């Protein structure tokens, strides 16, 4: 038997080592038994080998790992205990860096409060919210975060499922953009457009429909579509025809406005279907044909249709050849010139204007530039009457693409010119009244700068109009702060009346005034500035002071004084009179002396 020469100390050390190894082995076995170990790493001569341990939860782990969504288990304070590969891929962060780190670190700053709130709602079994995550690559990731309270081995925590909705949001944005684009097309249309349900109720309308009926959108939607036509039964028949045939074209109806005005229209309509292919309703578009409804609705020839459009126009329309000759005109041109169609066609276009050279220059400009807009001319009627017009013109081409001539339309602006002249006259009249006023009149910006003044302002301030404009009005008052207070009161209450102020002139003269002010507004209703008017009351105040002085002398004189009318009737006495005569004032008033 071999002799063991180790010391007692060495033997005790070895026993302690064996005891620790046994303790470690028992802890490992306990972990395996309790399911806390998923795999073992065994060192062998040929290298390390991993042995996985499968338990009842193994299929669930496989399920979590195969999910397309990111998943994680968090401690009650939000730290990641476990996460699947999909979450790591979504966040573009290695799993080992995510484990033990707070998930809130990956949440965008603006959503961190929402995220924390979701984790704290432990009284709700499952709750969710839409938040933005920051990826490891610095990108933004829009997700739906679903949270559930989970207890594992008596350790409370939160199960989290992260669903990437970035692409879905993009599709929603695309869908919304497409809808807005389609909506814009509907609203920009000048034709009334309407969708009708299978039971004849209005489902949607555009702005043109609101205009032609005079009824608001919320009143139209859900109402009976037939109610807005002069012949409801004819409209009902048309709708049935769409459902039975799929479409109708140029169906004649007349829309009645709430004012009683009737608009003749031609309806084109077709059914539309829901995603399941079922007929959901009818989409109908109405073309206003009031101005030229006669035979236009049934014309099939493009040339005749175009002819009808030309003749229906109230504006003079003309086509001009490349050498300046009239090729065609409409009825409005005949009315404007007083010349028959036969005489006009083939004649020189420029001959019917007060300035032929200007007209010639205009159509030549069209040939060189392609178009002209609002070109001013004046048409002379054979009677001598002149009609001011603005011409819009453009070249037109033949089927081969060659320039064939010019199409020109003239808009009668005679009434507009008259209105402008009346406006100019009214403005001149108003300006004359302002200048004739003896009161100071100014318009001011909101900053108190003078925009315009009248002659009286120059006289009261002793400053020229040129110097006054753009200067601060308060510079010309003895107490500028009082003027500013008056302006503030006008802005607050809408006006200020008979506000006593004093104007100082450069010569040292002062002018006492009563100041009125009120705000003025632009077309949008926003206040743009103030209107100020000051009346010179200097002499009036002096007269009142003299009267007050005279009254004081009358009341305090030692001599008895009475005042009578021309016929001797006493109208007033002073106190001295009462004292001297012993007659009271009431006793003598009205008596004849």
Structural account:
This protein is α+β, with helices and mostly antiparallel strands. The chain folds into six domains: 14-42; 58-165, PAS domain (Beta-Lactamase), CATH 3.30.450.20; 189-296, PAS domain (Beta-Lactamase), CATH 3.30.450.20; 313-417, 2-Layer Sandwich (Beta-Lactamase); 437-541, PAS domain (Beta-Lactamase); 557-588, no CATH class. The protein is built from 20 helices and 24 strands. A five-stranded antiparallel sheet has the order 4-3-7-6-5. Strands 9-8-12-11-10 form a five-stranded antiparallel sheet, covered by helices on one side. The protein has a five-stranded antiparallel sheet with strand order 14-13-17-16-15. Strand 16 (386-397) and strand 17 (403-412) form a beta hairpin.
Which terms would index this structure?
alpha+beta, 24 strands, 593 residues, flat, single chain, Beta-Lactamase, 5-stranded antiparallel β-sheet, 6 domains
- The CATH topology name of the largest domain reads Beta-Lactamase
Largest sheet: number of strands, sense, barrel closure = 5 strands, antiparallel
What overall form do the CA principal axes indicate?
A: flat
The CATH class assignment of the largest domain is Alpha Beta
Residue ranges: pLDDT <50 for 5 or more in a row? none
Q: How much helical structure, as a percent, in the residues?
A: 25-40%
Count of discrete domains: 6
Number of helical elements: 20
Cα-based radius of gyration, to the nearest Å: 47 Å
- In CATH terms, the superfamily of the largest domain is PAS domain
Number of strands: 24
Strand order of the largest sheet: 4-3-7-6-5
* Average residue-wise pLDDT: 84
Architecture of the largest domain, CATH level 2?
2-Layer Sandwich
First and last CA, distance: 171 Å
Structure classification: alpha+beta
Strand content: 25-35%
């Amino acid at each position: 038997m071999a002799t063991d020469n180790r010391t007692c100390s060495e033997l005790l050390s070895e026993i302690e080592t064996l005891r620790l190894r046994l303790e470690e082995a028992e802890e490992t076995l306990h972990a395996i038994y309790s399911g806390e170990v998923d795999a073992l790493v065994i060192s062998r001569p040929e290298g390390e080998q991993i042995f996985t341990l499968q338990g009842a939860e193994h299929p669930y782990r496989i399920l979590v790992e195969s999910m397309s969504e990111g998943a994680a288990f968090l401690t009650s304070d939000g730290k990641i205990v476990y996460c699947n590969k999909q979450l790591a891929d979504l966040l573009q962060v290695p799993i080992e860096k995510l484990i033990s780190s707070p998930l809130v670190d990956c949440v965008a700053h603006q959503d961190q409060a929402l995220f924390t709130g979701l984790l704290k709602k432990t009284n709700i079994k499952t709750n969710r919210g839409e938040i933005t995550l920051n990826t490891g690559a610095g990108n933004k990731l829009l997700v739906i975060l679903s949270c559930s309270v989970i207890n594992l081995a008596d350790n409370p925590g939160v199960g989290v499922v992260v669903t990437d909705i970035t692409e879905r949001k993009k599709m929603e944005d695309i869908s919304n953009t497409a809808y807005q684009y389609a909506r814009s097309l509907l609203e920009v249309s000048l034709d009334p457009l309407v969708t009708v349900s299978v039971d004849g109720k209005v489902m949607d309308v555009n702005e043109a429909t609101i205009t032609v009926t005079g009824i608001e959108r919320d009143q139209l939607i859900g109402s009976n579509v037939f109610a807005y036509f002069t012949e409801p039964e004819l409209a009902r028949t048309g709708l049935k025809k769409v459902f039975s045939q799929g479409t109708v074209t140029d169906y004649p109806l007349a829309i009645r406005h709430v004012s009683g005005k009737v608009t003749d229209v031609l309806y084109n309509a077709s059914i539309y279907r829901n995603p399941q292919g079922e007929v959901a309703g009818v989409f109908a578009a109405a073309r206003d044909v009031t101005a030229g409804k006669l035979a236009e609705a049934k014309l099939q020839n493009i040339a005749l249709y175009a002819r009808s459009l030309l003749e229906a126009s109230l504006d003079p329309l003309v086509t001009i050849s490349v050498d300046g000759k009239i090729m065609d005109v409409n009825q409005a041109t005949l009315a404007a010139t007083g010349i028959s169609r036969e005489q006009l066609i083939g004649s020189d276009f420029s001959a019917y204007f007060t300035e032929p050279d200007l007209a010639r220059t205009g159509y030549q400009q069209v040939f060189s530039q392609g178009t002209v807009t609002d070109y001013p001319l004046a048409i002379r009627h054979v009677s001598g009457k002149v009609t001011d017009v603005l011409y819009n013109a453009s070249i037109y081409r033949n089927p081969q693409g060659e320039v064939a001539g010019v199409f020109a339309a003239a808009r009668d602006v005679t009434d507009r010119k008259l209105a402008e002249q009346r406006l100019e006259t009214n403005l001149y009249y108003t300006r004359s009244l302002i200048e004739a006023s003896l009161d100071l009149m100014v318009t001011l910006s909101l900053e108190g700068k003078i925009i315009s003044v009248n002659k009286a302002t120059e006289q009261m301030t002793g400053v020229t109009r040129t110097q006054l404009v753009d200067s601060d009005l308060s510079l010309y008052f003895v107490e500028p702060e009082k003027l500013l207070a008056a302006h503030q009161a006008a802005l607050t209450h809408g006006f200020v009346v008979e506000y006593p102020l004093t104007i100082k002139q450069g010569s040292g003269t002062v002018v006492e005034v009563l100041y009125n002010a009120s705000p003025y507004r632009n077309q949008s209703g926003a206040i743009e500035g103030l209107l100020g008017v000051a009346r010179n009351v200097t002499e009036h105040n002096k007269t009142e002071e003299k009267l007050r002085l005279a009254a004081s002398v009358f009341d305090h004189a030692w001599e008895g004084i009475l005042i009578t009318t021309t016929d001797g009737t006493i109208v007033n006495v002073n106190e001295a009179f009462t004292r001297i005569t012993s007659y009271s004032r009431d006793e003598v008033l009205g008596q004849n002396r």
